[in-house]
Automatic annotation (TrEMBL):
Protein kinase domain residues: 15-313
Keywords: Transferase
Keyword Transferase: yes
Organism: Brachybacterium ginsengisoli
Name of the protein described by the UniProt record: Aminoglycoside phosphotransferase
InterPro entries tied to this protein: Aminoglycoside_PTrfase (IPR002575), Kinase-like_dom_sf (IPR011009), Prot_kinase_dom (IPR000719), Tyr_kinase_AS (IPR008266)
Matches recorded under Pfam families: APH (PF01636)
Molecular function GO labels: ATP binding; protein kinase activity
Length: 313
């Protein structure tokens, strides 16, 4: 049973406006998986085959999700059509509701566990996007250092109030990790259009290999490596088959950046999950706590490996 709102939860007035955009009554519904908010995430389709992607939420369901949907609508309205992003169709308030409508992205989310082929295809697409989106073509976006910087100071918050179950390796290296995370924030600065929330459920892969990036609520300006590092930090690779560590190094070499910079950024992302994993359960986002704990544990392995090679050395 999904935690998301569905078509049936939306008022008749929203149904009517969406069917006008669609060009006819909805004959087919497809709910999209992934994500953590209460916002609906559905593809509606008419008998003609015309389809639209709809996200809708009320403030009472999740105030944060409503604001993110508004931010995404504002960003999509300004992202160039050449970017691998489904185009904005409409965005409107309706009573207590805010509704975001886009074209439907082609393809499906990468399967998890990731395959080597899918990972290589997405990393190549990100390199192409960053090459074409520097300088940032969308004016007035916040910097990645602003949108993610506070999150990446999680080790500072842990130092001020250490949890009883703090991992012993983190405890032993806490001061150095705090410094690394601050360097990592600085390394994210730049003037490239960045998605800034990149993980598998925000990516679509088509059969022809084309990649679409969806859910642009956190669109920002940052470094050319910011999105790829965030994606690589999200990939679980317990047996090393995907060689995530090697992909991090190759990304940095391609962009002329020192290997330690990747370790610093990953340490900052680990700081967020290590801090956030101890937060109380959020009823409106029931899957979020487990996600944060899994990401903390998986990312710790990668950071320790890189730390011993690029920092401790």
């Amino acid at each position: 049973m999904t935690h998301r709102l569905t078509w049936a939860d939306l008022p008749t007035s929203v149904h009517r406006r969406l069917e006008l955009l669609l060009g006819g009554p909805v004959t087919r519904l497809r709910s999209c998986s992934g994500g953590f908010s209460r916002s609906s995430a559905e593809i509606i389709e008419a008998a003609s085959g015309r389809a639209l992607f709809v996200k809708a939420v009320r403030k009472q369901d999740n105030p944060g999700a409503m604001q993110l949907n508004r931010s995404e609508a504002a960003a999509l309205a300004r992202i160039p059509s050449a970017a691998p992003v489904p185009a904005l169709v409409d965005a409107f308030p309706n009573g207590d509701w805010f509704v975001l409508v886009t074209e439907v992205g082609r393809g499906a989310m990468p399967e998890e566990p990731w395959t080597a082929g899918d990972l290589s295809a997405v990393l190549a697409a990100l390199d192409e996007l960053q090459a074409s989106a520097t300088p940032c073509p969308v004016p007035d976006l916040p910097g990645v250092t602003d949108t993610l910087g506070e999150d990446m100071l999680g080790f500072d918050r842990i130092a001020a109030d250490p949890p009883a179950d703090l991992d012993p390796w983190i405890a032993a290296h806490l001061d150095a990790l705090r410094a690394a995370a601050r360097r990592g924030i600085d390394a994210l600065d730049g003037d490239t259009l960045c998605h800034s929330d990149l993980r598998a459920d925000n990516i679509l892969l088509a059969d022809d290999g084309r990649v679409s990036l969806v859910d642009w609520a956190w669109a920002s300006r940052g470094s050319r490596t910011a999105d790829a590092l965030q994606l690589l930090s999200s990939i679980e690779d317990p047996d090393g088959a995907l060689e995530v560590d090697r992909h991090v190094d190759e990304l940095l070499v391609r962009h002329g950046r020192p290997l330690g910079e990747g370790t610093d950024v990953l340490a900052g992302i680990l700081a967020f999950f290590a801090d956030a994993a101890r937060h109380p359960h959020v009823p409106a986002m029931p899957l979020l706590g487990e996600h944060r704990r899994r990401r903390r544990d998986a990312l710790l392995t990668l950071v320790r490996r890189r730390w011993e090679r690029t920092i401790a050395a």
